Amino acid sequence: MTQVGQPAPDFELGDQFDRKIKLSSFKGKCNVMLLFYPLDWTPT
Amino acid sequence: MGVSIDSAFSHANWAAKDCGGVSFPLLADFHPKGAMADSFGLFLAEAGITDRATVIIDKEGIVRYSVAVGPPGAREIGDLAAECEKINTGGGSMPKGEGVPAGTQLFVKSSCGPSRKALLAVDNLKLRDSIAVHNVSEDAAAKAKLVEAGGKDQAPCLVINGEAMFEAPEIAAKLADLVAPV
C-alpha cells in the first residue's frame, strides 16, 4: 500500500477518450483523487 | 480520476451506458494489466482485479490519503470530503473547457467501430444537444453533406470550425479537450 506522506509513483495511462494522462503533469497545478475500482460494469 | 484494469473501450462503453456519461478520466490500467495499481500496492494479483481504494495526491505529488476497502466494500464518502477540505488550500482546480463551437457536426456510419467510439465520446461528454449527429448509413442527404463538409465519403467525420477529422481517437480526444480538459 502506498504510504501517506510519500511521493506517489508516476504513471501515464490512456483514458476513455484515448488521451494520455500523466500524473506528473498535474504537479504544481492541482490535487488528484484516484478512485481504484475492481472492474467496469460493477458498482464504483 | 477512475482506475481499473479494463480497456479504454470498455471504459467508454460502461461510462456511457451504465453511468449516464463520465467526463472525468477513467484510466485504463490494461496493459501490462494492473501495473499502475500494483505500483500503488492496490492490484489483487490472484483475482486479477484492482482493489476498491481511494488515493489522494496533493499538488506536490505527495500521497495524502490512501484507503482500500476491498472489492465488496464501500468508500467512506464523508472521510473523502473531509480529506479534500483539508487539502484544498487555495487555487489549483482543473482547467475549464471552452466548449464545442456552434455548428459542430459528427457524421457516423451504422455497424462501424470507430463511429461507435466517436459517439461514445459524445455521450460521455453529454454533447448530444451541442453537436449535430448525422448517420450517413440511414440518410442520403447526410451523405451528401458529409462529402461537402469533409471532402470525402468517410465516417466517422467530425467537422469542427470548418475542419474535418476522420480518426476516432483524435475525434474523442479533441471533444474531451474542449469540454473536459485535464
- What portion of residues of chain A belong to β-strands? 25-35%
* Unreliable parts of chain B: none
DSSP E strands of chain A, number: 3
CATH class type of the largest domain in chain B: Alpha Beta
| Greatest interface and its participating residue counts | A-B, 39 and 69 residues
Kindly describe this structure:
- The complex is a heterodimer of chains A (about 45) and B (about 180).
- Chain A is mainly β and about 45 residues long.
- Helices cover about 0% and strands about 25% of the residues of chain A.
- Chain A is built from no helices and 3 strands.
- Chain A has strands spanning about 10-15, 20, 30-35.
- Chain A has a two-stranded antiparallel ribbon with strand order 1-2.
- Chain A is extended, with a radius of gyration of 13 Å.
- The model of chain A has no long low-confidence stretch (mean pLDDT about 95).
- Chain B has about 180 residues and is α/β, with parallel strands linked by helices.
- Chain B folds into 2 domains: about 1-85, 3-Layer(aba) Sandwich (Glutaredoxin), CATH 3.40.30.10; about 105-180, Glutaredoxin (3-Layer(aba) Sandwich), CATH 3.40.30.
- Chain B has helices at about 10-20, 35-40, 75-85, 115-125, 140-150, 170-180; strands at about 1-5, 25-30, 45, 50, 55, 65-70, 105-110, 130-135, 155-160, 165.
- Chain B is built from 6 helices and 10 strands; from the N terminus they run βαβαββββαβαβαββα.
- The N and C termini of chain B lie close together (about 10 Å).
